[in-house]
Amino acid sequence: MAVSKLTPAQRMFLEEKRFAVVGSKNPDGSPHLAVMWYLLDGDEIVVNSAQGRIKDRNLAADPRMSVLVEDEYRWIRIDGRARIEHDQSITHEDIRRLASRYYEDERRVEEGMRNSFSKQHRITYRLPVLRVAGEGL
């Protein structure tokens, strides 16, 4: 079933901690899928990556992206064009928010920031929640 915006049940589903499968298109047209942390931020899905990954190359060439979040028979897929953010003050704050969501331990967040994330050129992808498909919610 396709809808144009999130229902309260879909929003609640996305706000729960799960992993997302992020899809982009390889240069040869084949799909590229990556399991990633995500965050629902208002009416956008936010994912963050280190520069140099396959999805970074793909989305720089073609910003069309899909995000799929599932839990057994319940799922939501959001399709659209990602906004790409390279400003390191923004992207490092985004990876900090994502790490806080998934690590649930501020000590681990600080360790991750200090030992890994802050040493990388981070890229944030913001996908507006405009085209939504789902089932079971």
Account of the protein in words:
- The protein is α+β, with helices and mostly antiparallel strands and 137 residues long.
- 31% of the residues lie in helices and 40% in strands.
- It is built from four helices and ten strands, in the order E-H-E-E-E-E-H-E-E-E-H-H-E-E.
- The strands form two sheets. It has a six-stranded antiparallel beta sheet. The protein has a four-stranded antiparallel beta sheet with strand order 4-5-9-8, with helices on both faces.
- Helix 3 (88-103) packs antiparallel against helix 4 (106-115).
- The model has no long low-confidence stretch (mean pLDDT 93).
What topology does this entry show?
Elements: E1 2-3, H1 8-15, E2 20-25, E3 31-36, E4 39-41, E5 44-50, H2 54-61, E6 64-71, E7 74-81, E8 83-85, H3 88-103, H4 106-115, E9 122-128, E10 131-135
Antiparallel strand pairs: 1-10, 2-3, 2-6, 4-5, 5-9, 6-7, 7-10, 8-9
Helix pairs in contact: 3-4
**What is the molecular shape?**
globular
Extract low-pLDDT stretches.
none
Total helix count? 4
Mean pLDDT: 93
Structural class: alpha+beta
From the N-terminal CA to the C-terminal CA, the straight-line distance is 10 Å
> Proportion of β residues?
35-45%
Q: Characterize the main sheet.
A: 6 strands, antiparallel
Order of helices and strands: EHEEEEHEEEHHEE
Spatial strand order of the main sheet: 1-10-7-6-2-3
Question: How many DSSP-defined strands?
Answer: 10
Evaluate the radius of gyration: 15 Å
The portion of residues assigned to helices is 25-40%
